[in-house]
Amino acid sequence: MGAHANSLSIGLFIAVVAATVAITWLTARGTRSRSAFYSADGNLSAFQNGLAIAGDYMSAAAFLGVTGLITTNGFDGMLYGVGFVMGWPIVLFLVAERLRRLGRFNFACALAHRLSERPMRIFAACSSLTVIAFYLIAQMVGAGQLVELLFGIDYAYAVVLVGVLMTCYVMFGGMLATTWIQIIKATLLLASAALLTVLTLARFGFDPSALIDRAVAVHPRHGAILAPAALGKDPISGLSLGLALLLGTSGLPHILMRFFTVPDVRAARGSVFFACTLNAAFFLMVYVIGFGAVALVLPDPAYRAAGGLVGGANMAAIHLSQVVGGDALLGLISAVAFATILAVVSGLTLAGASTISHDLYARVLRVSDERRELQVGRVATVGIGIVAVLLGLAFRTQNVAYMVSLAFAIAASANFPVLLLSMTWRGLTTAGALAGGLIGLISALGLTIIGPAIWVKTLGYAAPIFPYDPPAILTVPLAFVTAWGVSVWQTRSKRYALAPAS
Amino acid sequence: MIDSGQQTTRAHSDPSFLPREGATALGWWLSGAVACAYFGFLVAGVVVPQALARPAIGSVPWSFLLSAGLLVGVSALTGMYVLIVNAREVR
Questions:
Q1: What is the pLDDT of residues A332-368, one digit of tens each?
Q2: Which residue of A92, A228, A285, B56 pairs with A272 in a disulfide if CB–CB is 3.0 to 4.6 A?
């Protein structure tokens, strides 16, 4: 057992697993049709869906990763929190309504509505699976670190445990189980974060100024933690990250898929409002938790290890819970953090499985047997589970919030331009959409690989070939311009071909 | 050529293809406003980071106050948009 293991945290951990398995068992009988598996038959209310969407966003990266970033870098970590919420109005104003009107199960349905179906489905599947892979890495790494630290289970076994559980939820319970697990987790996480916030503020007599004064006094960088530092050092990367977070939400397949779980467009709009408000409240609490960890955890020698905090910076929120609430709160927060990871990886897995079974199997290969499609969806779930475990093992040294920003960059560069143009610009052709989307996907992926995050930190080279991370500031405009240029060129050459020779 | 003229015609004659013009224009304006506010904040972080670190209320600096303002502001904006557009749709 690890240093933090206590009977309460182990009990709560087992209760979380038992509750999620029970939900899956209860919902499994209702998940017999394709519509139930992909979209819970469109029967959720705006509030339920908003809570589930907010839950998808309040991931391990958001809770543990952002708190960890605040603990190490101060205000720079808060920029992630703000960026995560800024994406919601864009989803609402430009995407959600049109998507709900045009689509059926996922965003590829909206693309196929007016563009040539097969190529668009294949493109949507490739880009969705790439985004999901990056997002999954962050969640699996968070899960492995957390379970290893709290329960002393080896990192590799922890990652396998999460992989097995998420595969079971999705395979048997589909969207309904995934959504209910997400709703329960979101409620638990918001309540626990509120408790942690109140207990942290109570240590400072509910005076935010006292909390900030203490954080500034004990942090090695002192007053510098109150100003954005990374933005000044590398403004292009900072603005690029801002762009990726602003537009990336509108291209995340597991978020877009949720707009089909409500009955109509009005409920889809309402879902975004609830999701935005709950996320904003959550990140406001994360600020207090992050600076609370600076003020209360950093100076405590019990949590200090050779390279920083025991278990890494991502564990700052967990340590803070023990400081302000003892072993009881530690047990609660750990169990909730674990539930968070399970719920988010399930949503990602479902989005990945649906793109394989619906976009590729049913629509590209034109197999109209619903039962076979569901079987393929379930087999795909197992496949994604295995890939997720392997990715979790390969990327264990990365900061989790960072990996999510890469997923956002790819979503903003590949999915968002094509989806937005297909729904708003009548001049878009299939060739234009494909060219723009593929250029966005390949450039975002390629420049990420040769950028600082993978080329230097993972592959071990001395200097990156492409200096900006994430590459969204270059790749998003590139995707838009390519889609526009190819569409215009194609339409003009058609017109010339049809014009009578004079 | 992958695109077919038939598909484009089908989509353009489909009444569900685009929402009403008013809602579309409002959506673009509000998206622009959110992007300006957010990037304005980020650019302030690049240009005058020290000004953001100065205390605004007690020891709470401008950086905290403005970022919290952005979070509360976009929540209020999405709420108002949903109320207005959903009410307009009922009429």
A1: 888 888 888 888 888 889 889 888 888 888 888 877 7
A2: A92
> What ipTM score was computed for the predicted complex, to two decimals?
0.88
The CA distance from B34 to A246, in Å, is: 9
Question: Which residues partner with B60 through β-bridges?
Answer: B57
* Interface membership of B70 toward A (CB under 8 Å): yes
Q: At A193, is the pLDDT very low, low, confident or very high (cuts 50, 70, 90)? A: very high
Using a CB-CB cut-off of 8 Å, the residues of chain B touching A272 are 78, 82
Q: What's the rounded Cα separation, in Å, for the pair A362 and A372?
A: 9
Q: How confident is the model at residue A399 (pLDDT cuts 50, 70, 90)?
A: low
Q: List the alpha helices (DSSP H) in A40-95.
A: 46-57, 60, 66-73, 75-90
B60's enclosing H/E stretch is: strand B60-61
Alpha helices, DSSP H only, in A152-207? 155-202
Q: Among the listed ranges A46-50, A237-241, A456-460, B14-18, which one has the minimum average pLDDT value?
A: B14-18
Touching check for B74 and chain A: CB below 8 Å? yes
Chain A residues within 8 A of B23 when measuring between CB atoms: 97
For all residues of chain A together, what is the average pLDDT? 87
Q: Do B71 and A283 touch (CB under 8 A)?
A: yes
Mean per-residue pLDDT, B15-35:
73
Q: What pLDDT is attached to residue B13?
A: 41
Interchain proximity A235–B35, CB inside 8 Å: no
What is the model's pTM? Answer: 0.89
Size of interface A-B (CB pairs under 8 A): 183
Are A246 and B35 a contacting pair at CB < 8 A?
Answer: yes
Point out the least confidently predicted range of A117-126, A151-160, A200-209, B40-49: A151-160
State the smallest CA–CA distance between residue A158 and chain B in angstroms: 35
Paired tokens of A229? 């530092």
Reply yes or no on whether the pLDDT at B2 is more than 50.
no
DSSP string, A288-351: HHHHHHHHHTTT-GGGEETTEETT-GGGHHHHHHHHHHHHHHHHHHHHHHHHHHHHHHHHHHHH
Distance between CA A262 and CA A47 in Å, rounded? 10
- For residue A65 the two structure tokens come to 């990763």
Query: Residue B60 pLDDT > 60, yes or no?
Result: yes
Instruction: Give CA torsion, residues A206, A208, A210, A213, to 10 deg.
Output: 160
Q: Is a pLDDT exceeding 60 seen at residue A105?
A: yes
- Inter-chain contact A423–B18, Cβ cutoff 8 Å? yes
What whole-number distance in Å separates Cα of residue A134 and Cα of residue A159?
Answer: 15
How far A292 CA lies from chain B's nearest CA (Å)?
A: 14
Which residues of chain A are within 8 Å of residue B85 when distances are taken between CB atoms? 97, 269
CA distance readout (Å), A103 to A39, A290, A482:
12, 39, 25
Tell me how far apart the alpha carbons of residues A54 and A67 are, in angstroms, rounded to a whole number: 18
From chain A, pick out residues whose CB is under 8 angstroms from the CB of B10: 114
Please count the other Cβ atoms lying within 10 Å of the Cβ belonging to residue B13: 8
Residues B78, A82: C-beta atoms closer than 8 Å: no
Q: Residue A243: pLDDT above 90?
A: yes
- DSSP codes, A18-55: HHHHHHHHHHHTT--SHHHHHHGGG---HHHHHHHHHH
